[in-house]
């Protein structure tokens, strides 16, 4: 297998932005998930307006929809100092123990990497969780937080509590849903259900895989009846998904890394699938495309655990996607494992060669975002007409907004 060097493409950010009025950002979801609008862009660039409920009509019978089943955790915790100052702690990922499920199962204490709001008011000492409603459960739990370190721009916070509850139970009772900052409002009780997909399972995300928010249970059943196949992997969406690209030369941007896992059964299902593959959301797309480069690593005798953001642009292996999957499957079988656990920093931008994405189901994304660059990588300059059409057609934007189905023109 030959590995060829190639230059990273020069991308100027000002070519991949647009004006998004604040009033076009959906503040709340529609009453029914599947009543959102869906803008379909065909392989030839033709645009069609419809409702999301009719998605099945746009997919061939042998389509495989790939979902991210990561579950959003109530990651925002509000503490209060004795002086009355409020401190918001946003849990990003576990540090001690570092494995998600192990951290969630802790009964007395754990350490998480966090961002801290109003940090200047918290120099030292422990904080007690703010119990505005005088909840007896929260009072007896006596949740405290203390700063124990700083690493790579994140603060390490140790949480301690009483009562023998698991940390997942602590978060469920004491935490708030981490709705996106651009909504400019506090989380409400309805967000607990609606900022979560109906198929969410693996706890760990601090932002929803929003393309999946449009699917109702009725729609999932209907697709199954119509021969649409489904598969699930798990990528824990990090807060970095909201970080704008600030460098005018995109090559200077550092992409965020996110952990994910895919089961052996999933890899084998993907390997044997004969029809179109459609990731539901940019997170599923990043996972699917990352699997190819992990397979190449396995073929070279390396442990497939991490995809660097520039790997697709600096290395061009001559291997099919199916062969890459075969090497991943072989790697797992040799180690007698049934789950591939890895992380991806993959940066999909114009110049990227998609290996398995036949179409992408996604929402409308922020200007100057890595997600918009991903869309442009798939549909080329046509992204401008697509977004102009959506703005002119009164589509709702961002996490609680409408969706688009973008077919790969190549």
Quick overview:
The protein has 410 residues and is α/β, with parallel strands linked by helices. 24% of the residues lie in helices and 24% in strands.
How would you characterize this protein structure?
The structure is a single chain. The protein has 410 residues and is an alpha/beta fold. It has 2 domains: 13-71 and 195-407, QueA-like (3-Layer(aba) Sandwich), CATH 3.40.1780.10; 75-175, no CATH class. Helix content is 24%, strand content 24%. It has 11 helices and 18 strands. Strands 14-3-12-13-16-15 form a 6-stranded mixed beta sheet. Strand 9 and strand 10 (154-160) form a beta hairpin. Helix 6 (264-272) runs antiparallel to helix 9 (321-334) and helix 7 crosses helix 9. The two termini are 25 Å apart.
Topology (SSEs and partners):
Layout: E1 37-41, E2 47-51, E3 64-68, E4 70-72, E5 76-80, E6 86-96, H1 100-104, E7 109-117, E8 126-129, H2 136-141, E9 144-151, E10 154-160, H3 167-174, H4 189-194, E11 202-205, H5 217-225, E12 229-235, E13 258-263, H6 264-272, E14 277-279, H7 282-299, E15 306-307, H8 311-314, H9 321-334, E16 339-344, E17 359-363, H10 370-379, H11 382-392, E18 403-407
Parallel strand pairs: 1-18, 3-12, 3-14, 4-11, 15-16
Antiparallel strand pairs: 1-2, 5-6, 5-8, 6-7, 7-10, 8-9, 9-10, 12-13, 13-16, 17-18
Helix pairs in contact: 6-9, 7-9
Helix/strand class: alpha/beta
Taking the sheet with the most strands, its summary is: 6 strands, mixed
* CATH architecture classification of the largest domain: 3-Layer(aba) Sandwich
Q: Do you know the CATH topology of the largest domain?
A: QueA-like
Counted by DSSP, the helix tally is: 11
Order of helices and strands: EEEEEEHEEHEEHHEHEEHEHEHHEEHHE
Mean pLDDT: 93
Number of structural domains: 2
Distance between the termini: 25 Å
Query: Largest beta sheet: what is the strand line-up?
Result: 14-3-12-13-16-15
Radius of gyration: 22 Å
Gross geometry: globular
Enumerate the spans where pLDDT stays under 50 for 5 or more consecutive residues: 1-5
- Strand tally is 18
**Name of the top-level CATH class of the largest domain:** Alpha Beta
User: Percent of residues in helical segments?
Assistant: 10-25%
Strand content range: 15-25%
Give the CATH H-level superfamily of the largest domain: QueA-like
